[in-house]
Amino acid sequence: MTKKEIQDQITFLKSDYIRIQGDLDKLEAAGGNVQNAEKQLARMEEELKELNKQLAQAEQ
Disulfide check for 32: which of 7, 27, 48, 56 has CB 3.0–4.6 Å away? Predict the structure, then answer.
């Protein structure tokens, strides 16, 4: 993956993360089940960590 592709993927994941976080807040306020959204956010955080490692390696 090129540096640009990694950056694009990070940008996409961040925007998706923000959207899901907003949904989570709404679910929580409505007393809904937030477990799936929390799991999805945790998975995305791990994916972002990995992409940031790849980006750091690509910049060397």
Answer: 27
